[in-house]
Amino acid sequence: MKEVILSVQERHAGSAKELKLARKSGKIPSVFYGKGIKPESLIVDSKEFLAAIEQYGANVVLSLNFSGGKKAAIVKSLQRDILTQAPIHIDFQAISLTDKVDVKVPIHIDGVADGVKNFGGVMEFIVREVEVKALPTNIPQKINVDVSALGIGQGVTIAALPKLDGVEYVQDPSTLIVHIVSVAVEEEKPADAAVGAEAAQPEVISKGKKDKEGEEGAAAAPAAGAKK
């Protein structure tokens, strides 16, 4: 396993204004904690952190370089700005390389489902990451799921995920990850057909009424040539 070193600086808990200024200067407020460890407030360089994450993945094991030495950690939580998606806070969890940890691993979809490609279906993503338990050195950066054989109404559950050495899936095996659904299309009647249907409506009632009125009028009118 390659050692990925990340420099950190201890900091005192600052005000919201101070934290905002730190972020503007390219720093990310962070906290380091773990079992039997007093939480420490930190500052890390945004560019250095993002470079490590982009190259090795979000579940990379980091060696946090404190002034007093290095400490192994993983990113337990990463908060991002809603608009810019820039990191605004990091929770680092202290770990032991000999103890298993619970982490969330992203799902990566491979292929195009048969039900989507050939039958006009849509793939719905139900769960985008799954929780696993593993030694820090066995944590996968992603879990690949091949969906190419899925037809309409079919899906993939956690039970069907690939078996990985040293990795245990924590969630319910029946948890649905993705499935393929059909798209209901409501057929519309052509405009000319609707017009034709309207034109074809019988007018028996109105016509009969007119005929009746005509008959009554004829009966009420005096016959031609009749004396008054």
Automatic annotation (TrEMBL):
Q: Which domain of life is it from?
A: Bacteria
The GO terms describing molecular function are: 5S rRNA binding; structural constituent of ribosome
Entry keywords, A to Z: Ribonucleoprotein, Ribosomal protein, RNA-binding, rRNA-binding
Q: Check the record and name the InterPro entries matching this protein.
A: Rbsml_bL25/Gln-tRNA_synth_N, Ribosomal_bL25/Gln-tRNA_synth, Ribosomal_bL25_b-dom, Ribosomal_bL25_C, Ribosomal_bL25_long, Ribosomal_L25_dom, Ribosomal_uL5_bac-type
**Which family does the record assign?**
Belongs to the bacterial ribosomal protein bL25 family. CTC subfamily.
Q: What is the official name of this protein in its record?
A: Large ribosomal subunit protein bL25
Keyword check for Translocase, yes or no.
Answer: no
- Report the gene name: rplY
Annotated GO biological processes are:
translation
- Comp. bias regions, Low complexity: 217-228
